[in-house]
Amino acid sequence: MKEIDWSNLTFGYTKTDYNVRCCYRDGKWGELEVSSSEYVDIHMAATCLHYGQEAFEGMKAFRGKDGKIRIFRMRDNALRLQSSCRGIMMAELPVEKFEEAMIKVIKLNEKFVPPYESGASLYLRPLLFGTSAQVGVKPAAEYMFIVFATPVGPYFKAGFKPTPYCIMRQYDRVAPLGTGKIKVGGNYAASLVAGTKAHDMGYSAVLYLDSKEKKYLDECGPANFFAIKGNTYVTPKSDSILPSITNKSLMTIAEDLGMTVERRHITVDELATFDEAGACGTAAVISPVSRIDDIDENKSYVFSKDGEAGPVCLKLYNTLRAIQYGDMPDTHAWVTVLD
Ligand code: PLP
Ligand code: COI
Questions:
Q1: Which atom of ligand 1 is nearest to the CA of 221?
Q2: Residue nearest to atom 1 of ligand 1 (CA)
Q3: Distance CA 278, CA 285 (A)
Q4: Of 21, 121, 182, 338, whose CB neighbour count within 10 A is largest?
């Protein structure tokens, strides 16, 4: 194995030894199969290629100080994948099979789980897609599930340093009654133009507004948005954002820390009243927001003047990481410890 510089990993693809696969044929899921190929051989008329019948998940496994590997909230990801499958009419993978595949892929690639000290983790990317041929717009009869693992560092280059985000009203990520609350590939294709434009302008991501009225905050590209106002954790309530497992965890941690949690509509103007803001997700963990530029309105909302994250974001980040790495008790049963 090529030497990996664990502490300087970015959020990129590094080849590991094995992936785990499972096929759905004749109305049922088969046995898990182990593959060392990075490629899949599928029919050119497969529905995933034409009609976007594809959904994915993102999870992480962490190596603790005790050397043990911990997986964070695996069941929640299994359930969300099922919800994505229902949303685009794919065969749902049973939770037990999902969990068995995650544990298998981690164990097979154990040497790629970064050491505790590096602060990196093993990213797990489960994906499920329609494989059988179809020319009419109809769901496939056959599906493939794959999970691969790859060691990663921070998603946003700055790691835990605050970075700027922007509001651009000419782009929507999803439609109001569309696929925003499920994790399907098409949502990400639809976000590429706006996301690339934002990156080119020096922003980490776009903070999308609701696509109907352009009045309320939705989410931050590939992460949910939250803000801190005094002792309150505020996060948008919207039917078109992905229900982030990280955000759900932070809401619980905030409550544990004695904070009030509000999940509600947040208007753009309200940004002026917040003390701190952050983007959160499996890949992003917490990415503190330094500033939000509302490009169309020519307004800026500043959350960090000194280049450092605020104290509440820091506390939430440290607590979440401590639970994930096993440095704090897992009082909510979020963590699966591998033997
Ligand atoms: N929102 C979007 C659009 C995402 O892609 C993700 C990443 O999965 C999130 C939010 C964060 O969700 P989670 O915390 O479950 O990773
Ligand atoms: C994640 O946070 O796991 C994601 O899936 C976000 C992104 C990399 C698409």
A1: 3
A2: 223
A3: 10
A4: 121
Rounded-to-integer distance, Cα 203 and Cα 291, Å: 9
Q: Which residues of 300-330 are buried (b: 16+ CB within 10 A; e: fewer)?
A: ebebbeeeebbebbebbbebbbebbbbeeee
Q: Is the pLDDT of residue 252 over 80?
A: yes
Q: Is 307 left (phi over 0), alpha (psi -120 to 50) or beta?
A: left
Sign of the CA dihedral 81, 83, 84, 85?
positive
Return the sign of the alpha-carbon dihedral for residues 38, 41, 47, 50: positive
pLDDT in the model for residue 154: 83
pLDDT, one tens digit per residue, over 188-204 is 999 999 999 999 999 99
Say if residues 164 and 291 touch (Cβ distance below 8 Å): yes
- The atom number, within ligand 1, closest to the CA of 173 reads 3
| Residue bearing tokens 């008790």 | 329
Classify strands 276-281 and 260-264 as parallel, antiparallel or unpaired: unpaired
Rounded-to-integer distance, Cα 193 and Cα 231, Å? 37
The pLDDT value given to residue 218: 98
Non-local (6+) Cβ contacts of 272 within 8 A are 301
Atom in ligand 2 nearest the alpha carbon of residue 281: 2
At 157 the pLDDT is 74
Q: What is the mean pLDDT of the chain?
A: 97
- Residues with CB under 6 Å of ligand 2 are 58, 188, 222, 281-283
pLDDT of the residue at 2 = 73
> Cα 45 to the chain's mean position, in Å?
29
Residue-wise pLDDT for 73-93, tens only, equals: 999 999 999 999 999 999 999
